[in-house]
Amino acid sequence: MLQEFLASGTLNLIYAVLILISFVFAVITLIGAEAGDALDMDMNVDVDADTGIDLASVSPFAMAMFGATFGLTGLITRIWFDMEAVPSILWSVGVGIVAGGLAQVLFIYVLSPSRSSHFSLADDAVGREVEVIVTIPSNGLGQIAYDNISGRVTLGARSVDGKELKRGTAVTIEKVTGRVAFVRLVEK
Fold first, then answer.
1. Could you tell me the CATH superfamily of domain 121-185?
2. Total-model pTM
C-alpha cells in the first residue's frame, strides 16, 4: 500500500497542497498580527504551571517557510529531476529545515529587535501598577506580569513589606533586581 502511494501522483498532490496551505497560513498570520496590533488586542496566554520547560518561540513565518519550501522542493525533485519518492521526501525535509531555520534566524535577529525599544527592565518596570499572576507568599517568591511595547513581561516578585499577595492583586513595582521585582500592594 505504501509503495502504491509513493509511486502514484498522490505525493505530488500533497506537495502542492502543502505549498498552498503554507501560503494561506502565512497570509492569515500576517493579517491576524496586523489586525491584532490595529485593534490593540493581546493574544498572549499566561500559564501558571511551572513545568521547567522553556520552549523556543517559533515564528509562524518560519513554519510557513518550512512548509512552502518542503512542498516546492518536493515538486521540483519529482517533476523536473524525476526523483523517486523517498529521496524526494528526504531532500524536501532537508531543504525545508534549512529554509525554516533561516527564516527563524531572520525573525529573531532582524525583525524582532526592530519592534523593541531600547530601555532597561528596571527603568521600564519601576512605578508600574501590575498584576500578581502567581501568589507571592509572605517571605517567598511569586510572579507578576505586565505588557510593555515589546510584549508580555513576566518577573519573579517579592513583597517589600512581607505581606502575602494573592493572585490577581494589583501591586506597584518599587525596584527590580535582576529578574525579581519588589512590589507593594496598591492602596485604594
1. Nucleic acid-binding proteins (2.40.50.140)
2. 0.50
